[in-house]
Amino acid sequence: MHSLLKSRKAQFYIISVVGIITILYATGRSLTESSIVDTSEVALTNDFFIFNNIVEKTLTTLSMVRSCEDLSFYLEEFKFFVIREYAPKYKVEYSYAISSCNDNLKSATVSFNITLSSLKSQITTSFTKNVNW
Predict the structure, then answer these.
(1) 41 falls within a domain
(2) Do 75 and 11 fall within a single domain?
(3) Domains: count for the chain
(4) Smallest Cα–Cα separation from 116: which of 78, 77, 90, 87?
(5) What is the Cα–Cα distance from 27 to 119, expressed in whole angstroms?
(6) By residue range, what is the domain housing residue 76?
(7) Residue 16 located in a structural domain
(8) Quick one: 15 and 68 in the same domain?
């Protein structure tokens, strides 16, 4: 009789532990689901990523220049590419002005005005870059 009482206590102990663990797990799951931060909005609006990519690739294009003719050609091709690539979703205003270009000195100065507009944002930058080749 004494061992039967011990086995019932053990069974009750095991059932109690399983029950408590189940309750704690369910409570934790319900709290975790409501506290997760939704980061998908940032991924869907990647305007800043695209804008920074345009600026970065502009600087990369400048590093490939080997003459004044290359400078004009590469920038015009890049402008055409950027406007065509992002036209369905964004309005891109990409303008540049070559203020001084000298093949003898192998240098040039270029000023840029870049604007990326979408339904949610408008990002603009202006900068001047000295190019040497």
Answers:
(1) no
(2) no
(3) 2
(4) 90
(5) 41
(6) 46-132
(7) yes
(8) no
Task: Please enumerate, as own/partner, the contacts of 66-72 that have beta carbons within 8 Å and a separation of 24 or more.
Answer: 66/133, 67/103, 67/133, 68/98, 68/101, 68/102, 68/103, 68/108, 71/98, 71/101, 71/108, 71/110, 71/131, 72/98
Tokens in use for 101?
């270009």
Structural tokens at position 107: 């240098």
* pTM for the whole structure: 0.66
Q: What does the chain come to in residues? A: 133
Print pLDDT tens along the chain (133 aa).
Answer: 566 666 777 788 888 999 999 999 988 887 776 666 766 665 556 888 899 999 999 999 999 999 999 999 999 999 999 999 998 889 999 999 999 899 999 999 999 999 999 988 899 999 999 999 9
Does 72 lie in the same domain as 8? no
96: tokens are: 């540049």
